[in-house]
Amino acid sequence: MPRYAMAIDLSLCVGCAACAVACKMENEVPPGVHRLWIRERELGVFPDLTVEFRPEQCLHCANPPCVPVCPTGASYQTKDGLVLVDPGKCIACGACVAACPYDARYLHPGGYVDKCTFCAHRLEKGGVPACVETCPTGCRAFGDLDDPESPVAKALKEAGRVDVLRPELGTQPKLFYLNAPSKKGLSQEREVRHD
Amino acid sequence: MTEFYGLPNAGEFWHWTNALHFVLVGLAGGVALLAAYLHLKRHEEARRYTLWALALIALDLFVLWAESPARFRFTHIWLFLSFHPQSPIGWGAWGLALSFLTGGLLFLGKGPQRALAWAFLLFSLVALAYPGMALAVNLNRPLWNALLAGLFPLTALVLALALAALLGSPWAREPLRLFAGASLLLTALYPLTLAPEARGHLLEEGGFPFLLFLLLGLGAFQERLGPWMGLLSAAGLRALLVLVGQWQGFGL
């Protein structure tokens, strides 16, 4: 069984949102909600300025807090590590939305909770997610963490620095950010809030 | 400065309708607990309160279904075709349904009444406990800390006892003061249990209503308007915490 993961090299990402648009089209994501979005944050003070372009989406956590809270089993984790929603069982109670620390889940107008699937429908056919395919800077790598020859395993091995979002919550994300531009790692909102 | 292309799905996911349910389920669970206790005490008002509990549980379950965007997909059947012991809402679904069943049998006088009363008590405790847990289980939400697992059952009892006092049951007055006191104490301590940025968010987003409901709660000790004050304070506080707690903090 593969253990699917994604890596995004932030030293290459320019925040063009091609991935976000590709996702929107591929998955017919309705207006007003997003499976994938870009967070752009300016850090530091001249002349020590940094800008971080950070695509965000479901991290398909190895320990996903959104799965155990689901009362119907609609929110589940596959054997290859995808976190998915079965709309046929979802009562749209929002427990998973509440539990997700990453705002990755939304209520689909069809009356169920929806989110990034790592393009499971493409993986089934041996493809890669639409966001990975379309990325013009090649900053995204996808594959099986357990296969040392997979693009994601290689990218992780070669990275100068690897970070995940909100690691303190113990969710063990499988979306890794490589080579974060700031020396402090991934930026946080509290860093850029001024009173 | 932070900007986005697209947006994180950070909007409100539990709206005023869900906040209403959090109030109703407090009443439903609390009144069911009172009814079960009255049955065990062989109190003359046991049947009356069982009927109230049944009505409130039914009303709450109806509101839950009616406000659910999945209502006409009829997926709620899966709540009862599966068992997910890690899900507070799963516990709530079973707790409320079994409370209704045992309460109904008690009301109709069918089956082993003593055993049913104990089961009713147990299931009503589940119904009482789950809303606070449904919030507190989300460790990513700084305002929904573990204190809510205590505050919600307490405010639910305040709601139920206030209703009982309004229905003219003299035995409700004294415990109402007791539980109102306990819940107010926890409410007053609650901001102190939060990290500074979470406390700031609470005060910024809901400081005025929070203070208002706290002050109203003090009115629960008053003789004439006490039950009304207790009811308003507990209901307001529950709704407020549901609404302002939908916040991730500044960690992203």
Helices and strands, with pairings:
The complex is a heterodimer of chains A (195) and B (252).
Chain A: E1 4-9, H1 18-26, E2 36-45, E3 48-57, E4 75-77, E5 83-85, H2 95-99, E6 106-108, E7 112-114, H3 120-123, H4 130-134, E8 140-144, H5 151-158, E9 162-163, E10 175-178, H6 189-192
Parallel strand pairs in A: 1-10
Antiparallel strand pairs in A: 1-8, 2-3, 4-5, 6-7, 9-10
Chain B: E1 2-5, H1 16-40, H2 46-67, H3 88-108, H4 113-136, H5 148-166, H6 173-189, H7 196-218, H8 226-244
Helix pairs in contact in B: 1-2, 1-3, 1-4, 1-5, 1-8, 2-3, 3-4, 4-5, 5-6, 5-8, 7-8
Keywords (chain A): 4Fe-4S, Iron, Iron-sulfur, Metal-binding
InterPro entries (chain A): 4Fe4S_Fe-S-bd, 4Fe4S_Fe_S_CS, ET_IronSulfur_Cluster-Binding
Organism (chain A): Thermus oshimai JL-2
What's the short story on this structure?
Chain A: Pfam families: Fer4_11, Fer4_4. Chain A is α+β, with helices and mostly antiparallel strands.
